[in-house]
Amino acid sequence: METMVKQLGKSKKYIRLAAAACLAIVVLLLLMLLAVLIYAKVKGPPPLAVPQASLLYGEDGSVIGETNTGEKRYWVDLDDISPYLIEATISVEDKRFYEHYGFDFKRMGGAALADLKAMSKVQGASTISQQYARNLFLSHDKTWKRKISEALYTVRIEMNYSKKEILEGYVNTIYYGHGAYGIQAASQFYFGKDAKDLTLEEAAVLAGVPKAPVYYSPISHPDNAGKRQALILDSMAEDGRITKEEADSAKNHKLAITGTHPNQTANVAPYFQDVVKSVLHSELGIDERTIEMGGLKVYTTLNPDHQKIAEKVVAEQIPQDSDLQLAFVSMDPSSGYVSAMVGGRNYEQSPFNRAVQAIRQPGSTIKPLLYYAALKEGYTPSTRMKSEPTSFTFNDGESTYEPHNYNNQYPNGDITLAQAIALSDNIYAVKTHLFIGQDTLPKTAKEQFGITTDIKKYPSSALGTSGTRVIDMVNAYNMFANGGYKVKPVFITKVVDYSGKTIYEHAPKKEPALDHDLAFVMTHMLTGIFDPKLNGYANVTGTQIIGDATRPYAGKSGTTDTDNWMIGFTPQLTAGVWTGFDKGEEVNLANDKYYAKKIWVNFMEQALKDEPIKSFKPTKNVIGVAVDPQSGKLATKDCPVQRFTYFVKGTEPTDYCQTHLRDGDHGRDHHSPSKKRKPWLDRFRDWIF
């Protein structure tokens, strides 16, 4: 009896010890759970940002390129994902997703029993929250350390984010195979559509891929993918998410697999894209990691049609075996939006962007800037100066400068400013440069036309010997094309971050840069290179392309030993072309010298083919009169050639041309001028030159 009492006492003691041990374990577990909760609360929400491709869009909304690190991922809101995909994912991955707090203990127990019976790992029990934590922050190593970290991240995610945010993050981060990360990239790759447009049968296939992206790929292993699709459809029917009839119908529906990433060939305008990335970093202050992997949506000014035309024209005009290089830029005059850019003949061989990086001699394309300054100093289209071989002496005879006209052709007499521009007379340009002061052109180019390189205070700068950039020169001509308003090259109109927040938007400003009347007078003079009425000792410089032009253009060509330019515009579009050799070799072949003009006119004609033909609209304070191109005076009925020319009111000629009067006609019927002294500007110029 005594022995039984002792044994009973020992049993109670063991029971008490066991109960105490269980209590201690429970308390310890509760303390651990409390510690985990406190840890999760203190640490706060883990960042859910993941690397995403940044997309670049053209002005028509098409994708022109993307940046990524090899992971094709495009974040989409849960509301923009097909409900079938959401239901299929929950059904196959985590049926009690909305009921648990990150861990499905019932499922974990069932998986453990299944594993024990099979004596191997046959079932997984990870919830969507656990998988999301693993995809975001951890490797897939099967170690205790990784499992503990996964659990801690899971708690933090569940405590700080809603189920909708977790589910949205999960389907945007998991790997669907073939380089597609997230449901949007997967939907586009496999079926060529957005995630919101997935059908039931398509959604069931995609929901099955993440378990084993290669094994269940409908491209690599269509049979495996089909079997898993059927399993998922049956599971959805059992869960009441779809009917059995819908499941059976979906199983029998044949899928059309695309198997290509939509943006993998979207490598439009690589030189332009490089500039966009540079602007994002240097001007908008966005770090390079965010540019490459931040899921930005960058809306650019590129017109894909203009870009295609530019590249096509370049390929057609310059022979493939030529070493000649080029730069091309087109812009909208009113906004400065860059619509197309070609920085070289082959981006893969040479990513050096000659449109924005190369500094080349602009030749005579600098003259409109010079002559605009001259108009401000009192010049008019009829201002005459003598053009003949001239030696300019400086520093009391210590140095001389002897410019030459093209092919050493000279009128050896007076010509007007309008004709000097049309024929690109160099003697007239240098005389003008010296007359208005050698510091005027550099100041005008920088302050009014936005030229970013320095124009030297040399006599030869009137002929474009100081280097400039193509982008700057095209932008300068934009100011003539838009009537004198300040613009600068614009590449980006808007930037949106991965969350849909607009972080930058271009705000256009309209402020005057030039005198509007003088800008129009200059523009009208620049139409002269296409007008044979201004032919004189040489033909107008646009002669080679007049036959290709079907609408009014204004522009200027430029030639040096090593560079050939053509820049011109209509009211709707400005474009500029430079051709030459990278190492500055002389351009000797005749055809090589004409490519810039040919590329320019062919681009303009094709780019504007469907646009209305617009002329340049005169400003209110200008007046147009018919003049004799040779004398610059008012034309009479005897003048064989008359050209309608615009002047600022009050500066138009008042004398009539007497050069072509018939014998015995003293001008009584032609309003011959009264005898009066020349204006002081003409007398002073005659005295100097």
Descriptive overview:
The chain has about 700 residues and is α+β, with helices and mostly antiparallel strands. It has three domains: about 75-250, Orthogonal Bundle (Penicillin binding protein transpeptidase fold); about 340-605, DD-peptidase/beta-lactamase superfamily (Beta-lactamase, 3-Layer(aba) Sandwich); about 620-689, no CATH class. The chain contains 22 helices and 16 strands. It has helices spanning about 1-45, 85-95, 105-120, 130-135, 145-160, 165-175, 185-190, 200-210, 220-240, 245-250, 270-280, 290-295, 305-315, 365-375, 415-425, 425-435, 440-445, 470-480, 515-525, 545, 590-605, 680-689, and strands at about 55, 65, 295-300, 325-330, 340, 385, 390-395, 400, 415, 490-495, 500-505, 555-560, 565-570, 575-580, 620-625, 645-650. The strands form five sheets. It has a five-stranded mixed β-sheet. The chain has a five-stranded antiparallel β-sheet with strand order 5-4-14-13-12, with helices on both faces. Strands 6-9 form a two-stranded antiparallel ribbon. Strand 4 (about 325-330) and strand 5 form a beta hairpin. The radius of gyration is 38 Å and the shape is elongated. The N and C termini lie far apart (about 145 Å). Mean pLDDT is about 85; it is low at about 120-125 and about 665-675. InterPro entries: Beta-lactam/transpept-like (IPR012338), Glyco_trans_51 (IPR001264), Glycosyltr_51/Transpeptidase (IPR050396), Lysozyme-like_dom_sf (IPR023346), PBP_transglycosylase (IPR036950), PCN-bd_Tpept (IPR001460). Its main location: membrane. It is found in: Cell membrane. One of its GO terms (cellular component) is outer membrane-bounded periplasmic space. In the C-terminal section; belongs to the transpeptidase family.
